[in-house]
Each structure stands twice: as structure tokens, then as C-alpha cells.
């Protein structure tokens, strides 16, 4: 038997150590959700240290196994620098809290070294976009005094910047990190445990069984499953990979082009980030930032999210009809057995328990705590495979711990930007400029907000994207008189949709290897499928009744729901080129014009466009009643 070399053995030992650390981090998230933390410093700094150490030790283990000496040296150096910087923070932490500590030059350089470690770990986990934003923020804090116009500030020394960014609770270890540890980690672990105990495959089986007889088939199943899992996942790309590895090949096998299959999964996975009840954990951050109760945010986000997913269903159905894609044969549909029904309780009961706990007045963290315990107990009771192999629960904790560690690193990096924004007041000055450029035009202000949100959110997970965008651009939209909850949801939508917007489009790049298609092409198709998502935020601003919580009237709600439904139908038929029959270019152009017209906030335009749209809908209905046979496309799907 071949004996393993000592680097390989040590590498495996370190990988096992990292796995133990990841499980500990997951357990910390569960414990803090249920019982709290004895110390705010321990909560923030201690969790960050554990997360960073887990990721670095795992990297050392991998590099040892693959014999990469320079990478090993770099990782060990990063670990040493992290240890020194955290040790120094702990040494002077008590004095920092009293404000009676005078910084030494060594403190500043140690803090800067700690930030360098954080930036390198951010680069490894999320690539360069977030690192570039953080570096630009630090550069702005140090050299903004020489910049022109609104960018200019009074100037800050390196010592002042380090005091705020590293040695205070306004920067790396700021409020968002505390929210992540106390609220978000438990839900990340909850999602991982559901997957580990077998709830994920069962959910997909239910989705396929429910939608299999529709023309969209697997595409509709992908939308349903990705929407449900996406609400619990803080990572769009993680959700794409988790469900897409099963759904994308099946969508392609039914006759959809590969790029379209990837676009469906990317659009559906992204939407989960604004689907209640969890909204990819961004709802908890939003509640902390705005002071608005969590349940109010969920209620405000509910109808817009349902319209978004309805638009995906309609778009996919019409595309399937236009391509003459038939429903899945009945004998190929999954049969839901007693085990599946029992396993569905592992998903349904914890979610129901969460809602009951929150409606009783307890915190979302406590709801997550009980949901985790309920899911684990049900997994052990209902799934014989879990009872035979209970270590899958530990594996679920490990996976959740790794995902949690990455989110902690991302939010800690965003703390750099938050600290600089608080120091310099750039967000308020930027809001003033938008007000000055846009004048009294709310629409122009919203367009600028949309473009800024799409650019600032590119390449980032939902929570960091939301925090950056709302800090820079949130004050601007609120100054225009938009209700706070709608202003924040506006930013969330475009921050999320930046994940499917080329050229970055991280959701499309995640789907590309599975679909074996060009990621930019996938991003374009995803944007086409999800077009209503780019319109809904504007509809919320001009029709606050859609939010159900501000400016609500029954008449306003019915009127906006009618017009938004018409827009979904008109845009979907216009893009697919098929309604009751093949549509020509003039008819498609008319539908796009009417789809926009019904939402233009002028009563006369709304009324006229709505009347014409209802007439077009009646014609479509009559045509379908006469002949429900689909007209196949002129060119085969493979040509696309």
C-alpha cells in the first residue's frame, strides 16, 4: 500500500481542522440566534477571526495537498498577520471602548496589515470588483482633499482612517457585521441543513410534478424551485449552481436553447433575493438600517416579487409555445410517494414555525433558531437515510459554516466603505448633486439611481451590494419624497438584477459552465426574461399601493395590478413573437409601446393605453379559442 507523504497528510489534517472550524462557526450562528452573545466585541471581532481563520487554514490544507510552496508561504504569512492584528485589537480593545487610548505608530501599521489580509481574502472569495471598491474608498478617504467638486472633503490622515475603519465599530467591525452574525448566519445554516437532510431534491420533485404538464415543464420547475431556495440563500451564484446543476440540463433536453436555459435559471435564482420571507437575508439588514419592522418589509416586498415570478412563468410559457415545445409526457413525470410527502414537512413546518414565532413578537433570529432545530429533528424522524448516516447533518453544518465565513468576510470588507462614507459624508453630497442635476424630475432621479445601482452592485453578493448602493444613493431618492421602504426596495431590486446584467452578470457566469453556453449571451437572455423586474421598482414608486404598507388604497391596488398584468402579457408576447399566432414586427412594436403606456403616470395615457391593451388581450383570447395549435418557429432551436 502506497504511503502518503507528510505534506499530503498534514494538508488533510489542516483541511479537517478547517472543517471543524466551519462547523463551530455554524454552531456559533445558531447559538447567538437563540441565546445572544455576552460581549459585542467578542460577537463581532471573534466571529470575524473565526471566519477568516477557517478560510485561511482550508487554503493552507489545499495547497499542501497540491504541493504549492509559494501559495503555502503566502497563506501562512496571512495567518500570522491576521493573528497579530487581532491580538493587538484585543490588547487595546478595552481602552478603545473608553476612548482613553492614544494610538501608537505600530497600531496604525498593524491595522493596515489587517485590512490587507481582509482585502486578499475578499479577492479570493468574490474576485476583484469588491476589492476595487474598498481600495477606492480608502484612497478617497486619504486623498479626497485634493479632488474637485463634490468629491472634495477636509482630508484625513492614515491614523484617522485606521481609527475609524479598523479600530472602531464604525468600520470593518461595524453594525452590518453584527447583524450578519446575530441574524443572517442562522438562516444560511438553515438552508444548508435543509439541503443536507434531503429537502432540496424533494422540493425539486414537487416542482417538476406541479409544473410538468405545462409547456414550460422543467423551465417552470426551475423557476419555482429557484425562487423558494433563493429566498434562503445569500448568494445568487450559489443558488444558480445548487439548483441549476439539475434543472438546466433538463430544460435543454426539452428543446430550449442552452443560453435560454441558463438565462431562466439565472433570472429565477436572482429573484429569490427579493422574495419574502427571508429575501436572501437582505430583509434583516434593511430592517436594521431603516428601523422598519421586518414583517413590514416582507409585506411590502410580497406583491412585487409575486409579479416578478409571474412574469417569468408567462415568458417561459410563451417561449415554449412559440418553439412548439410539448409538455413532459405523463410517464416521465416524477411520482410523489409517501416519503416525498413526509419529507416535504422538513421544509413546510420549519417555515411555518418561523412565521408563527415572528408573528408572536419574537425576533427573526429566534425564529431562525427554532426553524433550524425543527428541520434537524424532522430530518432525523422522517428520513431513514439521515438516521443511518447522521453525519450528513455535520456536513450540512460544515457547508453552512463555509458559506457563512464568506458572507462575514464580504460584509467586513463593506465595513471599509461604510466607515469612509460616514467620515466623508459623500452619500449626502451625492444625493444633493442628483437633486441638482435632475431638478424636480423624479423620473430622471430614478433613472440615475437605477444606473448607479446596476454599476455599484455588479459582481457582488446581495447584502454587500445593497449596503454600498443604499449608502451612496439612498439619501437621493428619499429626498425626492419617496417612502423609505420603497426607496430601499428600489435599490435592492437593481442591486440584485445587476447579477444578470452584462458585462459582469455573475449569475450568468455561474450558469455558463452548466449550460455550456456563452455567459454574455446567457446574461442577455436573462435580462430579456426578467425585464419586468427592471420595471417593477418604478411601478412601486409611482404606485405605492403595490407595497401594501404605504399610500395604500384598494382602488389603487386593483388599478396597478391590472396594468402591471397587462404589461407582463404585452412584453412577453412581444419578446416571444407569439400570442394566438405568429406576430409580425409592427404588432410586436405596438405591444411594447402599449406595455410602457399603461404604466406612464398620466391618467389619460394610462386609461387610453389600458383600453387598447384590453382590446389586444381580447383579440389574443379569441384567436386562442379558435385555434390553440402552436405555430412552430421558422428556425430550429439549435440555431440559437
From TrEMBL:
Membrane topology value: Multi-pass membrane protein
Compartments where found: Cell inner membrane
GO cellular component, one term: plasma membrane
One of the record's GO molecular function terms: transmembrane transporter activity
The keyword rRNA-binding is assigned to this record: no
Top-rank taxon: Bacteria
Domain TRAP C4-dicarboxylate transport system permease DctM subunit, chain residue ranges per copy: 115-553
Record keywords: Cell inner membrane, Cell membrane, Membrane, Transmembrane, Transmembrane helix, Transport
Any Pfam family matching the protein: DctM
Protein name: TRAP transporter fused permease subunit
Native species: Pseudooceanicola sediminis
Lineage: Bacteria, Pseudomonadati, Pseudomonadota, Alphaproteobacteria, Rhodobacterales
Amino acid at each position: 500500500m502506497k504511503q502518503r507523504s507528510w505534506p499530503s497528510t498534514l494538508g488533510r489534517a489542516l483541511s479537517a481542522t478547517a472543517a471543524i472550524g466551519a462547523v463551530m462557526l455554524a454552531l456559533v450562528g445558531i447559538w447567538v440566534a437563540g441565546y445572544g452573545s455576552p460581549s459585542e466585541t467578542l460577537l463581532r471581532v471573534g466571529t470575524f477571526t473565526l471566519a477568516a481563520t477557517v478560510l485561511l487554514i482550508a487554503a493552507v490544507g489545499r495547497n499542501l495537498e497540491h504541493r504549492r510552496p509559494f501559495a503555502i508561504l503566502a497563506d501562512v504569512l496571512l495567518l500570522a498577520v491576521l493573528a497579530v492584528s487581532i491580538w493587538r485589537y484585543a490588547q487595546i480593545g478595552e481602552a478603545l471602548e473608553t476612548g482613553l487610548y492614544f494610538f501608537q505608530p505600530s497600531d496604525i501599521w498593524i491595522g493596515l496589515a489587517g485590512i490587507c489580509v481582509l482585502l486578499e481574502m475578499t479577492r479570493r472569495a468574490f474576485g476583484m470588483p469588491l476589492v476595487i471598491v474598498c481600495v477606492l474608498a480608502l484612497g478617497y478617504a486619504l486623498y479626497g482633499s485634493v479632488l474637485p467638486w463634490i468629491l472634495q472633503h477636509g482630508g484625513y490622515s492614515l491614523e484617522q482612517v485606521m481609527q475609524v475603519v479598523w479600530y472602531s465599530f464604525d468600520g470593518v467591525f461595524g453594525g452590518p457585521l453584527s447583524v450578519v452574525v446575530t441574524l443572517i448566519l442562522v438562516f444560511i445554516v438553515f438552508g444548508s441543513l435543509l439541503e443536507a437532510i434531503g429537502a432540496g431534491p424533494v422540493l425539486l420533485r414537487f416542482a417538476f410534478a406541479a409544473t410538468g404538464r405545462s409547456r414550460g415543464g422543467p423551465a417552470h420547475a426551475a423557476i419555482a424551485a429557484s425562487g423558494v431556495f433563493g429566498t434562503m440563500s445569500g448568494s445568487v451564484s450559489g443558488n444558480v449552481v445548487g439548483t441549476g446543476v439539475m434543472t438546466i440540463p433538463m430544460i435543454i433536453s426539452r428543446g430550449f436553447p442552452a443560453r435560454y436555459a441558463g438565462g431562466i435559471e439565472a433570472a429565477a435564482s436572482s429573484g429569490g433575493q427579493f422574495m419574502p420571507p427571508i429575501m436572501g437575508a437582505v430583509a434583516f439588514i434593511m430592517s436594521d438600517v431603516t428601523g422598519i419592522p421586518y414583517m413590514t418589509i416582507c409585506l411590502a416586498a410580497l406583491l412585487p416579487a409575486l409579479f416578478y415570478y409571474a412574469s417569468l412563468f408567462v415568458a417561459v410559457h410563451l417561449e415554449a409555445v412559440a418553439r412548439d415545445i410539448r409538455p413532459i409526457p405523463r410517464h416521465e413525470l416524477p411520482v410523489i410517494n409517501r416519503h416525498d410527502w413526509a419529507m416535504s414537512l422538513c421544509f413546510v413546518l420549519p417555515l411555518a414555525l418561523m412565521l408563527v414565532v415572528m408573528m408572536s413578537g419574537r425576533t427573526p433570529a429566534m425564529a431562525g433558531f427554532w426553524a433550524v432545530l425543527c428541520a434537524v429533528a424532522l430530518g432525523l424522524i422522517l428520513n431513514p437515510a439521515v438516521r443511518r448516516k447522521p453525519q450528513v447533518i455535520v456536513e450540512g453544518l460544515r457547508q453552512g459554516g463555509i458559506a457563512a465565513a464568506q458572507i462575514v468576510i464580504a460584509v467586513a470588507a463593506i465595513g471599509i466603505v461604510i466607515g469612509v462614507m460616514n467620515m466623508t459624508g459623500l452619500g449626502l453630497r451625492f444625493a444633493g448633486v442628483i437633486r441638482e442635476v435632475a431638478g424636480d424630475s423624479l423620473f430622471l432621479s430614478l433613472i440615475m439611481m437605477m444606473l448607479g445601482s446596476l454599476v455599484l452592485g455588479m459582481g457582488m453578493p446581495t447584502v454587500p451590494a445593497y449596503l454600498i448602493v443604499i449608502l451612496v444613493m439612498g439619501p437621493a431618492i428619499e429626498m425626492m419624497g419617496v417612502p423609505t421602504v420603497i426607496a430601499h426596495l428600489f435599490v435592492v431590486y437593481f442591486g440584485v438584477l445587476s447579477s444578470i446584467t452584462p458585462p459582469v452578470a455573475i449569475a450568468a457566469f455561474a450558469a455558463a459552465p452548466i449550460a455550456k453556453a456563452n455567459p454574455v449571451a446567457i446574461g442577455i437572455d436573462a435580462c430579456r426574461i426578467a425585464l419586468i423586474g427592471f420595471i417593477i421598482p418604478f411601478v412601486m414608486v409611482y404606485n405605492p399601493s403595490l407595497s401594501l404598507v404605504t399610500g395604500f388604497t384598494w382602488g389603487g391596488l386593483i388599478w396597478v395590478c391590472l396594468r402591471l398584468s397587462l404589461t407582463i402579457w404585452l412584453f412577453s408576447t412581444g419578446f416571444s413573437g407569439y400570442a394566438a399566432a405568429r406576430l409580425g414586427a409592427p404588432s410586436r412594436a405596438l405591444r411594447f409601446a402599449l406595455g410602457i403606456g399603461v404604466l406612464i403616470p398620466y391618467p389619460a395615457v394610462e386609461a387610453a393605453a389600458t383600453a387598447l391593451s384590453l382590446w389586444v388581450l381580447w383579440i389574443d383570447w379569441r384567436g386562442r379559442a379558435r385555434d390553440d395549435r402552436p405555430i412552430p418557429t421558422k428556425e430550429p432551436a439549435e440555431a440559437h
